[in-house]
Design goal:
alpha+beta; DNA primase DNAg catalytic core, N-terminal domain; Dna Topoisomerase Vi A Subunit, Chain: A, domain 2; 5 domains; 4-stranded antiparallel sheet; 26 helices; 15 strands; 51% helix; globular
Length: 618
Amino acid sequence: MMNNYTNTIEEVRSRMDIVEIISEHVTLKRSGKNWLGLCPFHPEKTPSFMVNPEKNIFKCFGCGAGGDAFSFLQRKTNQPFNEILHDLANKYGIKITYSNENTDLKNKIYEINKLATKFFTENLFKPGNVAKDYLNNRGINDDTIFQFNIGYALEGWDNLLKFLSKENNFSTDLIEKAGLIIKRNESDGYYDRFRDRIIIPIHNERGQIIAFGGRSLSDDNQPKYLNSPETIVFHKGKNLYALYQAKESIRSQDYVILMEGYFDAISAHSNGITNVVATLGTALTGDQLRILSKYTDSKRIFISFDADLAGGSATNRGIEVIKNTFGGLGGAKIFDNNLFKDSFYEIRVISIPEAKDPDEFIRSKGAEKFKLLVKNAPLLLDFQIENIIKANDITDTNNKLKAVSQLSELFAEISSPIVRSEYIKIIADRLSIKEEDFQRELLRLKPKSYTKKQTALDTIPQLTTRKEPKDYITLAEKNLLSLYFLNETCWKPVSKRLNGINLSNESLQIIKTSIEELIETNNDVEELTKALLNKLAEQTEAIEFVSDIIFSLEDKYCLKEESSIDLFIKQNLACIERFKSRNIENELKERYYAVKNDEVKSLELQYEVKQIVSTRST
């Protein structure tokens, strides 16, 4: 049944908030990017129950319980999976459908959106249309209008509804599912969602129209911007405006400029800056970053949000999402010279002077001036340092100490002692303090990076342990599977080394087999994780192992080179063999003591034990 409901599971998972669901049963408090609370599955006084909303998983470090929202509710309510799926689907207004039904529905919505776009564009070019004048006054010519399929929704209540239902024979149910009409509250019937608005179609990466944004032409028509609701083909946090138009330019220039608004991106493109995309009325998400990283090999992303307070807040939120998505500053280019060429990604921030947003700046100052801002954009770390210094009046001693405290949080993420030393010199000079005093203060504040962290190799079990061998075989097998969740570049070497190897734990073997299937059709770790959770949704033990593996990744992010990955695989495979030998040895000892009165059998078993011990020591 799970396979038939895969699309429903996927849709329910995309709608639900694991923090919200678990908060109905557990009091949670934010702890960094996670949420922390008292475990509901065992008695405890100190919270050890962690929820990760980005990955949609939970883990108790006290009793070991873990999984996703489905398995949490299964544990808590003792309901079977299918009942929980139906309950959640009803909660979010999702119809339980089979996979082929969803495919048909998606295709019909694409067709409806294509016809709606044609209708809107024809409206825009009707004589005397003020919307066309508005666009032209903003410097948007006909070529740009056709490039982005910009249109206009007429003032009436049901113009689009009549066009789609009466002229093209689509049912109101389908048009509503496309997000284009709204059911009336006080009477029967529907009305158009978009009325008297400039219409901006939103495309997916393949060029299919998945949604619309509408910009009002009068102050009376609020809100100023109105977007399509989320549908089966449209999820705001998983799409980017203008990516379809920009993707080839991003590839050729090997960097992307990320803006906030539709007209920011349109203005940039119409002025020849074509590697620009925009978010869709939401905060920047990890999914959007992962999409962008597919189109730039060097993962160079320039953030150019609005210059006002809201834009500044969006930039700061975006920075946190970037660090969470790419695993902190450890893999970032964080020093602007040629010493460090192996950075995993590069983030720069474009500050907009003398204008409220990129659109206004480009229209008033010109494309060349904006390109100069891009050329001089500081790296992410430099931008953050400058912001901290600017936010504190460093002529005051207390504010200077406050700035140092805030800077220590950034320094905690710099792994290179050379880079840290260079920044100490730069910042000490900016703060007018001695380098040694600044360094001493950083050490006093004890940022995380100054404490020794467990490395990936520290997680490999050693034979000195006296615990059950099977527990450590399982740990080593989880270590091996964890490599699939680090980075998609690990997939090939891991699959090659694990080819033909059967894991001793049944659930871990199921996970391994599922991953081997899914990496053929998924492009990155985020896609793999979501697909795996959906595929294994009914298998609570396997889901618990997936959660456990993901929560254990922190000490494995240091595995970046193929040589270190290969060493990690070899050592874990060797560990498994050693513990299997010990397991056999223990079994033989038990058999020996059971037959110790039989001299012949006991001698045979003693010989087997000696052979195993001898093999293990070589």
